[in-house]
Amino acid sequence: MAVDNIFMKIVRGELSADIVYRDELVTAFRDIQPQAPVHVLIVPNHPIASAADAGQGDEAALGRLFTAARQVAEQEGLSQDGYRLIVNCKAHGGQEVEQLHLHLLGGEPLGPMRCRHRDR
Question: Is the terminal CB of the chain with fewer CB neighbours within 10 Å at N or C?
């Protein structure tokens, strides 16, 4: 896995980002191409290519993704009305950066996850 992807560069401070949360396990920052009024990416601070590549040694960071998401949602005023959390995995799942990351989206009604496939 390339550890020089854009997300790891942000984690290491080599690229600037609007960071909204950071601790020893994860970093959260605003997406530069938001898909909702609030769109924050939460990434582990160490390389994990995708959800399919996560192992037992990653469990602390994986759990922290969700507790950090809760904290960011509270900071952003999303807790009462709700929000969506998305993890894309590999090419068919829509993953664009080779680093596990959690999308936190909210600030408006988000609608259904996706349109149903017409042949089903």
Answer: C
Q: Which residues are within 8 A (CB) of 102 and not within 5 positions of it... i.e. 6 or more apart?
A: 41, 42, 43, 65, 66, 69, 85, 86, 87
What is d(CA 4, CA 42) in angstroms, rounded to the nearest whole number? 17
What is the model's pLDDT at position 120?
Answer: 52
Both structure tokens of 2: 């390339």
Cα gap 36→109, rounded to integer Å: 9
Residues forming the active site: 101
**Does the reported pTM lie above 0.85?**
yes
Tokens of 45: 């601070």
Is the pLDDT at 1 greater than 60? The verdict is no
The residue written with tokens 């994986």 in the block is: 62
CATH architecture for the domain at 6-106: 2-Layer Sandwich (3.30)
